[in-house]
Design goal:
By secondary structure, the protein is of the alpha+beta class. It has one domain: OB fold (Dihydrolipoamide Acetyltransferase, E2P) (Beta Barrel), CATH 2.40.50. The chain is built from 4 helices and 9 strands; from the N terminus they run βββαβββββααβα. The strands form 2 sheets. The chain has a 6-stranded antiparallel sheet. A 3-stranded antiparallel sheet has the order 4-6-7. The longest helix has 11 residues.
């Protein structure tokens, strides 16, 4: 399994793509494979302040329910409303239309603390060893 190089990753299998101090956040293709078919996504309200590493929502799949963790601290500036009508977008396009929230970073420099695609691939390999 390969992971896009234009995003950073967390140990909890979220990804973040930064543009102008705002990060778009979703779950990785690996996470969607582990979860199975996503049937419901619960996301925070716009304006909610998120703490790095704390839960910000829930993804419910056929196999299980899993918490979503904020990769970085900041304020939610947009949520992906399309997931309310079609949560399976997360499975079809995890790094594209299946994004979950956009966060205005409290500290833009914190983005560099997330894992590269190579580091994330190593983590996934270790979890399957």
């Amino acid at each position: 399994m390969t992971f896009p190089d234009d995003v950073r990753y967390t140990r909890e299998h979220e990804w973040a793509r930064e543009a102008g101090g705002v990060v778009t956040v979703g779950i990785t293709g690996y996470a969607t494979d582990q979860l199975g078919d996503v049937v419901f996504v619960e996301l925070p309200e716009v304006g909610k302040k998120l703490e790095s590493g704390k839960t910000f929502g829930v993804v419910e799949a056929v196999k299980t329910v899993s918490d979503l963790y904020a990769p970085l601290a900041g304020e939610v500036v947009e949520v992906n409303a399309a997931l309310g009508d079609d949560p399976a977008i997360v499975n079809r396009e995890p790094y594209g239309a299946g994004w979950m929230v956009k966060i205005k970073l409290a500290d833009p420099a914190s983005f560099s603390t997330l894992m590269s695609s190579a580091d994330y691939a190593k983590l996934v390999d270790e979890q399957h060893a």
